[in-house]
Amino acid sequence: MSEPRNKHLLVKNRRKLISPVFHLQTQQEDEKHLSKETIKDVKRTGVLKLHAKHLSSVPSRVFTMYDEEDLPNGVSLDFNQSCKDELWWNIKPLTNLDLSSNVITELPGKIGIFQDLLTLNLHDNSLTCLPEELTSLTKLTKLFINRNKINQLPNDISKLAELRVLKLSHNCLEQLPDSLVDLVMLEKLDLSNNLIKQLPSGIGFLVRLTELDVSNNQLKTLPPDIVNLRNLAILDINHNSIEKLPESLGEFRKLQILHAQHNDIQEIPDFTGCECIQEIYFGNNFIKEIPDELCENLQQLKVWELRDNQITVLPQDIVKLAHLTKLDVTNNELTEIPAVVALLPHLQSLKIEGNKLKHIRADVVHTGTQRILQFLREKLSDEDLNALSNGFESAPIEACVFPDRYKMRNGNILNLTMKGLTSIPDEVFIEAKEARVASVDLCKNKLGLVPVGLQMLSEFLTELNLSANQLKEVPEELAKLAKLKLLDLSSNSLNSLPIAMESMVNLRELVLLNNRFNKIPDCVFGMVGLEILMLNDNGLTEINIEGLQKLSRLATLNLSNNSISFVPPELGNMTQIKWLELKGNSFRQPRYAILEQGTESILSYLRDKIVTH
Prior knowledge:
Radius of gyration: 35 Å
Strand content: 5-15%
Strand order of the largest sheet: 1-2-3-4-5-6-7-8-9-10-11-12-13
Low-confidence stretches: 1-21, 70-85, 389-398
Number of strands: 21
CATH topology of the domain at 405-608: Leucine-rich repeat, LRR (right-handed beta-alpha superhelix)
CATH class of the domain at 405-608: Alpha Beta
Mean pLDDT: 88
CATH superfamily of the domain at 405-608: Ribonuclease Inhibitor
Helix content: 10-25%
CATH architecture of the domain at 405-608: Alpha-Beta Horseshoe
Largest sheet: 13 strands, parallel
């Protein structure tokens, strides 16, 4: 293809390359955006905004609008002359120039005439270089050049001595001038999404920096003196190839947020001294262990993201992270989650998918945070509680501070776990009703009766946890909670349930483990929506197959650790069951070897035993 014969053809071809619907303006069209009215406003305010005007060049009139021939009628730069319309001393110099979101390919050197410029915004253009005259703008405090094609910065950029904010993200920078570290007034520096392989060794001189973003580059190390940035509050180094963080990371006394995900980090550094740290992101690295003493030094931590690493153990000391609200350990090599995690008072999000957990069922993991925490609370031993809950059981009920409706609205949850309660005032449920509470967790208390006030929540309540109390019976009125989807009555002293509960057709999960049932309660067979039924660790002597066959949606059935002497072969026809647990009973068939092979093998074995006539 022959080279375009003139500039007009070149512009025409460039227009086609950019977008078939985008019109690349000519210089004449660019000039039209600077009307006399616009210029008048500029002189009145000192601000010129040419954002998103489809400019392909900076209008030449920008550089002449303060010339005398461009002044409004009646205005002269003669200091002895005045005018009724506008006085010369009312004219403000240009302090803010916004040329962002255009397709400007070149910034003219004439930019240097605006000696009073404080803010220059050039983001989202097509600039490939910057004129040396830019560095003469010595009053500049904010410079935005992000999302261009800049591959080099002026060597004397240090002349911009008043610069507070410098945004250079999404360019083509491979290296930085040494003079960058002389911009000692800088408070925010964004170098993200470039091709930078190394930071200047003197970066520690930028002691006023509060935010530093070098994410999405090609860094392998951080200069040792980076820890001198003692005012740094946010450090983002994600998506690099960094193998090790500075050992003296604790020098970041004011650091609040650290983004270090998607690197090659193998060890978590010592955070001793980082007393303000609130969020740490270490996802997608090669971390294998969490140092024992780490949690002691992170007591203000709120968010801890450790997903996609190789961590095998979470330390028991994680319970010391009293302010933690989010914990993500997805896709590691954990085999268990410490039950003490359930004691973290502010934990709202717990992600543990993608691990080989031995003691937490997959359906619990996938149900979400509240269900996981409920499961972990049930696993807490008395020793855990005595050692870690600081004697909550002996606390007088009068001293218990009940949440008000405003606190309960955050998640629509009433959580009174492990308070040593023997009763709950009706006023608490009145507040809960106002908050439209959908989940109530009363586990690990001393309740001998189901609180009557729960009936006030019948319009909203979908989850109720009464596990680990001292219940000996359940009132018929519980059946009025018709919208319940999850009911946990485990670890009580129950031996029966009222038949009225068969009307709870919306119930999806019923947990009755560790009670005193000697048969499956008849009401269960009317709960036609039931998907999960946990009856392990009771005294069941038989399996009512006729009743169970009515539960067509049942997918999880745990009858382990009972006194069942016979397993009806017809159970094998309930092929909708995906998780069946029968171990720890007195029957001889199926044998233990079959039970070890899993649900499909058990069901298949039972079907083969069905006698046909």
